[in-house]
Structure to design on (218 residues):
């Protein structure tokens, strides 16, 4: 099992994102630990510093995503500028450019977006969880997250349009609670747990190439 504290996870992803071998590995399942609570402001500055120092597009994209998600307004870091600079560092990589385009497109909250509607009423124990990650062809990523009893739980994933991603939610007994298997890499599952406990989130890549996705809970 990979141990992914949010900061190290995103930096590791940044270092390998453009150089990793994305060969087809059918039916491979990777279990990942959801990132722990961190100081988001410090994380944004760390990612920005790393991204500019190393001309790393993924680090800047991640910082911009957190800025937009948390709706932070910092005096010396701007999400739109981070994305524009990330485009320069992308060296024409279509996947990275697609990710930038998607983040810009999703910048304005949708009226029906449950993440923005109930962000102050967390379904996950502690606070909302999120992770930026890459999934190989035909692979499965698995997260274990605790959700609260009688609180609306929401899990969203947003890919960059490269493949079809499916989302499945299981309870601690292995029962399938809900799923989103539409032919898209934008998925959403909502449910109301009848007890506080651990739930398994499985993300399956149905395509023959890798995809990038952002996973978030309420």
């Amino acid at each position: 099992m990979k141990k992914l504290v949010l900061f190290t996870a995103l930096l590791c992803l940044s270092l390998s994102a453009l150089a990793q071998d994305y060969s087809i590995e059918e039916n491979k399942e990777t279990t990942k630990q959801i990132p722990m609570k961190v100081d988001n402001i410090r994380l944004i500055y760390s990612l920005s510093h790393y991204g500019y120092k190393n001309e790393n597009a993924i680090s800047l994209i991640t910082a911009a995503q957190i800025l937009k998600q948390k709706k932070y307004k910092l005096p010396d870091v701007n999400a739109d500028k981070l994305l524009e600079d990330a485009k320069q560092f992308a060296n024409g990589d279509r996947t990275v450019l697609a990710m930038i385009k998607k983040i810009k497109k999703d910048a304005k909250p949708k009226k029906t977006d449950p993440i923005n509607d109930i962000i102050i009423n967390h379904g996950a124990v502690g606070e909302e969880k999120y992770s930026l990650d890459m999934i190989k062809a035909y692979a499965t990523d698995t997260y274990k997250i605790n959700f609260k009893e009688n609180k609306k739980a929401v899990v969203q994933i947003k890919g960059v349009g490269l493949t079809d991603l499916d989302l499945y939610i299981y309870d601690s007994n292995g029962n399938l609670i809900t799923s989103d298997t539409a032919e898209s890499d934008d998925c959403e599952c909502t449910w109301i747990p009848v007890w506080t406990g651990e739930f398994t989130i499985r993300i399956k890549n149905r395509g023959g190439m890798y995809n990038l996705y952002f996973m978030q809970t309420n």
Q: What stands out?
A: DSSP finds six helices and nine strands in the chain. The longest strand covers residues 197-205.
